[in-house]
Amino acid sequence: MTDDCELLQRYANSRCEIAFAELVNRHLPLVYSAAMRQVGNDAQLAKDVTQSVFIDLARKAGPLSGRTVLTGWLYTSTRFAASKAVRAEQRWHAREHHANTMQLQESVRDPEWDQLHPILDGVMCQLNESDRNALLLRFFESRQLSDVGAKLGVSEDAARMRVERALDKLRKLLEKRGITSTSAALAGILVNQTITAAPMGMAATITGVALSTATATGTTLTFLKIIAMSKLKLGIIATIVVAGVVTPLVIQHQGQTKLRENQALREQLTQSAKLPAANEHSAKALTQTTHTDSQPLSDKEHTELLRLRGEVGRLRSVSQELANTKRQASEVHDPVKQLRQALEQMPEKNIPELQLIDEKKWAEDASKGKLETEDGVREVLARLWRAAKTRLALNIGEAMHNYLAANNQQLPNNISDLNPYFKPPVSDAILQRYELLRTGNLADAPPGEPLISERTAVDDQYDTILKIYRDNYIMAGVGKWNRPNTTNAWPTFR
Questions:
Q1: What mean pLDDT is reported for the chain?
Q2: 319 in helix, strand or coil?
Q3: Which member of 132, 298, 351, 417 lies 3.0 to 4.6 Å from 412 by CB, making a disulfide possible if both were Cys?
Q4: Are residues 222 and 296 in the same domain?
Q5: Distance between CA 133 and CA 125 in Å, rounded?
Q6: Is 106 inside any structural domain?
Q7: Closest residue by Cα to residue 220 from 185, 263, 268
Q8: Confidence band, pLDDT 50/70/90 cuts, at residue 101
Q9: What b/e sequence results for 273-284 when a residue is b if at least 16 CB atoms lie within 10 Å of its CB, and e otherwise?
Q10: What is the CATH number for 94?
Q11: What is the DSSP letter of 42?
Q12: Parallel, antiparallel, or unpaired for β 434-436 and 452-454?
């Protein structure tokens, strides 16, 4: 028997599917049985866990090929995968319970969105095509700026400027309709409200119906012509049937449609043996043209044709399975999704300031991090915390500047007094993590003493404490991040 390491090496070096299939067959009972025990005998969930383990095995085939005993790794991986699956299932049930509870309560709508959504699409159509495309790609399809630039044929910076200009134009058009808002607030509304999730299965249904309608007539007529041909060579049949593999995959997964297809095929084969009167003229013309005798297909040819049709169905099924596996693999190994899942297991580190970070920053840091270890996750989160606090510091600086101007340079008595001066607004949950250290007149505040400080570190090894002074703000590192403080001058504080 070939060793596991040799099979893994063969797969890692040459992508030998036979070698990997042997590994799956060899270890499937162990993995599936362990998964069943650990997910409470939920067969479908155990199947998902098993699939996840072997996807991970395929991805890590190279590094693992040096192991002489693969069983231990598979067992441990099954435990981790089952644990994640069970937690995900529990979260799903919790969300379902929450959703059911919310249905009993009165729905609360965003008044700005209530005003905006009846006229949004009409106003969008007033923009020129370039501006409209920029907004659709950025907000309606939630694309990163790099993707927007690639679609529009410009750089990422140029795409950012184009989106900002288009957003400002949209804001001005809305003002003419009596809806006033800042560009930042408008962007937030567009990101959160413009996409409504389609019902599950809707895409498959639409695809199946559309493609079935488009191809039904042509496929039937072509097949009848093939049946009417004399002494049809099996090689030609095979070529035509294999070409049919590219026809809609989704239709094959709909049981009733498949039964109707098979029934229609049997009826066509029966009719072809008798050569109906409607096809006799075409058959005679074909005979005169090719100087051959037009004869119905023999029983052997019927059998072979049916066999090939069955092979098409099998290939379609395999193709669908591969597509599903590829999709699941991409979901499993999405760095942002992996990071967010890890963060869910550490709720104390999910500070509200993270809502200030855009998806691009999440993707950049997650893709560079070592998310396989807890320290790696904490270090990535530390970068996100630092970026979020930096953005918050700038917001506090601008709010403080406006507050001082409106109150004769008197500092607020409470940090919540700054609330009306934030643009865009900052949630109370964020401000509660900070404390005001000094009141009175700004001129009396010593430059070396902080005015506002973060109450406590998020992580005692990977974090930076935000401190805001009269003339600057400082990010003071703690633990492993205890490096020289970064001092930043206020652009508009005084």
A1: 74
A2: helix
A3: 417
A4: yes
A5: 10
A6: no
A7: 268
A8: low
A9: eebeeebeeebe
A10: 1.10.1740.10
A11: -
A12: antiparallel
pLDDT for 435 = 93
**How far is the C-alpha of 252 from the C-alpha of 15, rounded, in Å?**
29
Alpha helices in 60-194, H assignment, sequence order: 61-64, 71-103, 111-116, 120-124, 129-135, 145-152, 156-176, 183-193
In a domain, 58, yes or no: yes
Please provide residue 193's backbone torsions phi and psi, each rounded to the nearest 5 degrees: -115, -20
Query: CB–CB of 305/227 below 8 Å?
Result: no
**Where residue 242 falls among pLDDT bands split at 50, 70, 90?**
very low
By residue range, what is the domain housing residue 57? Answer: 4-98
Strand-pair partners of 464: 477
Task: Please list, in sequence order, all residues whose beta carbon lies within 8 angstroms of the beta carbon of residue 35, skipping any fewer than 6 positions away.
Answer: 45, 46, 47, 49, 50, 53, 78, 81, 82
Calpha distance 476→454 (Å, rounded): 10
Of 259-273, 332-346, 354-368, 448-462, the poorest mean pLDDT is in 259-273
168 & 251 share domain: no
Output 480-483 pairs: Cβ under 8 A, ≥24 positions apart.
481/382
Q: What is the pLDDT of residue 196?
A: 53
Task: Please tell me the total number of residues recorded for the chain in this structure.
Answer: 494
* 389 and 472 housed in the same domain: yes
Amino acid at 401: H
Domain match, 324 and 225 both: yes
Same domain, 483 and 344: yes
Q: Quick one: residue 122, left, alpha or beta (phi over 0 = left, psi -120 to 50 = alpha)?
A: alpha
The number of domains in the chain is 4
Q: Tell me, yes or no, whether 236 and 257 share the same domain.
A: yes
Taking the whole predicted model, whether its pTM rises above 0.90 is answered as no
Place of tokens 């695809």: 207
Query: Residue 109 falls within a domain, yes or no?
Result: no
Could you tell me the maximum CA-CA distance found in the chain, to the nearest angstrom?
110
Structure tokens, 251:
């239709």
In sequence order, which residues have a C-beta less than 8 Å from that of residue 377 and are 6 or more positions away? 339, 342, 343, 346, 369, 371
In a domain, 367, yes or no: yes
Lateral strand order in the sheet of 472-479: 434-436, 452-454, 462-468, 472-479, 486-489
User: Residue 147 contacts by C-beta under 8 Å, 6 or more apart in sequence?
Assistant: 137
Among candidate residues 413, 392, 393, the one with its CA nearest the CA of residue 403: 413
Nearest to 371 by CA among 361, 362, 380: 380
Q: In angstroms, rounded to a whole number, what is the distance separating the alpha carbons of residues 160 and 154? A: 10
Residue whose entry in the numeric block shows the structure tokens 């006799």 = 280
Average pLDDT over residues 403-422: 91
